[in-house]
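User: I would dearly like some help making sense of a protein record. I have put the entry right below:
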Amino acid sequence: MNQLWAQFSQWYLSVLNDGGYWLIAGLMALESTVVPIPSEIIIPPAAYIAHTNGSLSTVGIVLAGTAGSWLGATLMYWAARGLGRPFLIRFGPYLGIAAAKIEKAERWAAHYGVPGVFFSRLLPVIRHLIGIPAGVVNMDFRWYSLATLVGSAFWCSVLTWLGLTVGRNPELLAGSLHRFAALVALIGLALAALYYWFVHRPSRSDA
């Protein structure tokens, strides 16, 4: 799997200047569906290139990433709303979405509602699935869109900052600055804590 992502990253960097914002938006749209493309390998490299050669702007990267995330999340929402829960439970596994994951996402969405959609944009796994329960329970699309846009913009801004920081400090690629590594580790721990608090903890309490 690591080799696969390494090959993807090489391809992405080779076409990023030509694809520009449309490529970023398209990949982030896929990232918000059932296609497991990590946003961490889409936004930071684009921000790094924005700093090194100026072919992209940081604002444009955040806007493209946010728009793409919203588009993918919107497709998931309306697909789930149109197909319905029975169809998703039956055929979801064929798309790589286990029924247990759908049921967990439903409980999670019912517990946290619209604020949960915002936090979902910061969490792995649930970020790809939140559109399904939101669509199944007919969550107000306007609020769903707003929470998705705000959460996605925040997450894309964080990833853009990481990419810019590396661009301004090339020595970070050699791992010479421990403060940055510690900061990244801290962000990772914070996300892990959020993931546990907003995903596993409700599941345990419902058991």
Q: What stands out?
A: Residues 2-31 form the longest helix (30 residues). The mean pLDDT is 78. Residues 38 and 131 are 17 Å apart (CA to CA). The chain has one domain: 2-206.
